[in-house]
Amino acid sequence: MMQDYPKTLPPTARVGFTVMDKWLAYAPVKNNPEDASKVPKGNPYHSATSGEMAIYRANSLILVKAGVQVEGPVQQVFNGQEVEVWPRITWKPKWGLTFSEIKSKVRHSCSVSQRSTMVLKGRDIFLEDLSLDGALIINSIDGAEVKVGGSIQNKGWLLERIDYNDTSSPEELRIRGFKINKLEQLEQTYSEPGKFILKLQC
């Protein structure tokens, strides 16, 4: 066990630890939907549902700290678990491994609504004066610098409930308690090196 490791070190070893806020560093996924639904309200569910929502929350709060106006969550129930649903924001690790990297790629005034989905798949994607209310997916190769801004609004992606007992749905969806209905999105792919600007006015 990790907590036993210091006991194996000699008395002369220098041992330290780092403390982080729970939202940034701790979201185990170990309970099945049935067991998670029995957890008393206010206690962590530690399920696939809560684990996925924790990722969206962490990414949203990281962007808030970087200066983005991210609309707060709504409460929804999936598989009997009441969870906070933040904007569905994800990025590949190469977009930003450290906070300083992420902060350097967010410029001027940016905002993301609660119902939005944003997926960043590229190293050099910069958000500049972006107002997002819907779904946005950016794919770019290394060597393609993409500046994304303006007002982007569409029907977006909706979360639709699925019961974990409904065997007509795949298991990977049933354990989440929802599926994603992709109504409308803006997706752009940059497969050549260069500098590009995506700026829409709706």
Secondary structure elements and their pairing?
Blueprint: H1 22-25, H2 33-37, H3 48-65, E1 69-70, E2 74-78, E3 81-85, E4 88-91, H4 99-104, E5 106-107, E6 111-112, E7 117-121, E8 125-133, E9 135-140, E10 144-153, E11 157-161, H5 171-174, E12 178-182, E13 186-190, E14 194-200
Parallel strand pairs: 1-6, 4-7, 5-8, 6-8, 7-9, 8-10, 9-13, 10-14
Antiparallel strand pairs: 2-3, 11-12
In words, what does this structure look like?
Helix content is 18%, strand content 36%. Strands 1, 5, 6, 8, 10 and 14 form a six-stranded parallel beta sheet that branches. Strands 4-7-9-13 form a four-stranded parallel beta sheet. A two-stranded antiparallel sheet has the order 2-3. The chain starts with 21 loop residues before the first helix and ends with a strand. The protein has one domain (2-200): UDP N-Acetylglucosamine Acyltransferase, domain 1. A hairpin with a 2-residue loop joins strand 2 and strand 3 (81-85). The model has no long low-confidence stretch (mean pLDDT 94). The chain is globular and about 55 Å long. The chain is α/β, with parallel strands linked by helices. It has helices spanning 22-25, 33-37, 48-65, 99-104, 171-174; strands at 69-70, 74-78, 81-85, 88-91, 106-107, 111-112, 117-121, 125-133, 135-140, 144-153, 157-161, 178-182, 186-190, 194-200. One of its GO terms (molecular function) is UDP-N-acetylglucosamine diphosphorylase activity. InterPro entries: Nucleotide-diphossugar_trans (IPR029044), UDP-sugar_pyrophosphorylase (IPR039741).
